[in-house]
Inverse folding.
């Protein structure tokens, strides 16, 4: 169910990024960019992906996700929780 105005997802800490992105995009259909950054790395190393361009939306709605690599080499969400922010 969409949660209007939801801006962070602490319940997703510990999840893998792929499933978290699916959850976020269902809850906030206006999200159009996901930026991932590995914990402990400078912000300049973030990788951003357009997930659903929304025509005429300015500025874009961007979700920032901090992750660590787990033992299987997958991206696992860590603190801070995924949140909507601005560049």
């Amino acid at each position: 169910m969409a949660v209007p105005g939801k801006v962070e997802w602490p319940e997703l800490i510990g999840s893998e990024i792929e499933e978290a992105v699916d959850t976020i995009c269902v809850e906030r259909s206006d999200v159009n960019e996901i930026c991932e950054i590995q914990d402990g790395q400078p912000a300049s190393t973030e990788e951003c992906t357009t997930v659903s361009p929304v025509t005429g939306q300015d500025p874009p709605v961007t979700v920032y996700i901090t992750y660590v690599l787990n033992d299987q080499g997958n991206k696992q969400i860590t603190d801070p929780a995924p949140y909507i922010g601005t560049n």
